Amino acid sequence: MKGLMKKNWLLCAVVLGAALSCREAPPPVGPTPTPAQLAWQQMEMNLFVHFGPNTFSGLEWGLGSEAEDLFCPTGLDCRQWARIARAAGMKGIILTAKHHDGFCLWPNPYSRHTVRESRWRDGSGDVLKELAEACAETGLKMGVYISPWDRNDPTYGTPAYNDNYARTLRSVHDGTYGPLFEHWFDGACGEGPNGKRQVYDWPLFHRSVLDLQPQAILFSDTGPGARWVGNERGIASETNWSTLHIEGFSPGAGAPPTESLSGGDEDGGHWIPAEADVSIRPGWFWREAENDRVKRVDELMDIYLGSVGRNAVLLLNVPPDTSGRIHPVDSARLMAFRRRLDAVFGNDLSQGARVQTSSSYGLRFRGRNLLRGGYDTFWAAAAKDTCASFILDLPQERCFNRLQLQEYIPLGQRIRSFVVEIPAEDGRWQLLAEGSTVGYKRILTFPEVRSRRIRVRITSAKASPVLCGAALFLDNDA
Ligand code: FUL
């Protein structure tokens, strides 16, 4: 009798275990990213390239009346850009194919203000083509910035401009330059109160890109693929939701408030993650006089923590000089920045830890998934455990000052706030740091501590947390 009971119990345990391990993932909460948005977020860091007549005039906003011959790089080398971008750990390059001055870096058939009209390579040059080839060879993705505001196009300020701009978009997205991962719609317009007024046909512009490149991320103040972070310092808010309200807003003058751009809206109905753009120099375009004002590695590190470390994608502008190559000061700085990133984030101090969790959503989603590589392997807490916690028990005491957390965003952004604790001398948990949102990636910084155990307690969440990564690092130069 006793033996039979034991057998039945074992059978139940096996059946229950099997059921729990086959269990489906918890249901998503709120808006979620499209596969293209997830792939975009995973790129983390891209190179922005401002290049055009302004490189030669020293202006930030060209007038539109510049002679085409002004654009004359003496040794354009897009392969050098791509090599540097790749060595720096960037996954894509976005080029200003047309800035506000209207000059097109490709022979746009719908403009008479392009490389074709210049003496550069006797009018047969095409920067987009060279960059597309360089990116393809280097394994980088390519994106384009094509300014809606145009100081050269004579139709600007009339409905005809919208059609011309749409045709211009199509001439770039029609496959001539291969797949383009992102299209940057800049909201800037400096026409002033007495200037030309253009009522943009956004639906037409979006269709013009998406009909040809359905996977492209459309960037603007209101997305729909990604949103401007609301400043040009490359820094997102500490609380940064990837969800946004867009009803009643439009790119440019009608943009959402700055707080929403840099922090998202907790209850926003659309998944529109933040992209943080910033220049490595004071200006967006190269200037001889700024060669000694290239950002230092510690400034770049702060930007990284404030963007990638706060659930945004970083778009770092490194503008080529008049030769058409990235200046040695900028490339050396980028390489030093890469070395610092590798020194800090190349050594995960949570390796070998045991993970204890307050609960889990079945065996398939257990705590140890937190430390297993791969974004798709995650820990999910039990459905009712919105204030779930986990403890990392390291093999021995270690020093660290950075904690990295990652939510599995295909199931929505859930966490509102969390605390990080380590044991005090009497063994009781004491507060080390506090954080708010997590999202795709959150890197929390705190003064260096030495500990064997660390506890992360979610203090508020929209639904039970789903985390696919937890890691500890030490930045010795912080
Ligand atoms: C702004 C532009 O006006 C700047 O020139 C630069 O291109 C920056 C990235 O966006 O809106």
Explain what this protein looks like in three dimensions:
The structure is a single chain. This protein has 478 residues and is α/β, with parallel strands linked by helices. It has two domains: 35-345, Glycosidases (TIM Barrel); 354-473, Jelly Rolls, CATH 2.60.120. The protein contains ten helices and 17 strands. It has an eight-stranded parallel beta barrel with strand order 1-2-3-4-5-6-9-10, surrounded by four helices. Strand 9 (274-279), helix 9 and strand 10 form a beta-alpha-beta unit. The longest helix is centred in the N-terminal third of the chain and has 21 residues, at 2-22. The protein starts with a helix and ends in a 5-residue tail after the last strand. The model has no long low-confidence stretch (mean pLDDT 96). Bound molecules: beta-L-fucopyranose (FUL). Beta-L-fucopyranose is lined by residues 60, 186, 188, 277, 284.
Structure summarized in a few sentences:
The protein is of the alpha/beta class and 478 residues long.
